[in-house]
Amino acid sequence: MKKIFFSLLLGFSLVQGAALAQGDAAAGKDKSMLCAGCHGATGKNPSPIYPDLAGQHAQYIVKQLKAFKSGDRTDPVMAPMAANLSEQDMADLAAYFSSQSRTGDQDKAVVTTTAPATATATKPTFVADPASGKTLYENGDQARELAACIGCHGKEGHSKVLIYPNLFKQHPEYIEKQLHAFKDGSRVDVVMNKFASVLTEEEIKNIGAYFADPQAMASIKAKHIVQASVSSEAVTAGKAKAAVCASCHGVDGNSMVAIYPKLAGQSSEYLVKQLTEFKNGTRKDPVMAGMAAALSTQDIQDLASYFSAQKITNGLEKSNELGKKLYLGGDKKRSITACAACHGIQGKGMAKAGFPAVANQHVDYLKGQLTKFKSSVRANDANAIMRITTQKMTEEEMQALAEYMSSL
Question: Which of 35, 172, 235, 240 is deepest in the core (most CB within 10 A)?
Answer without folding.
Answer: 172
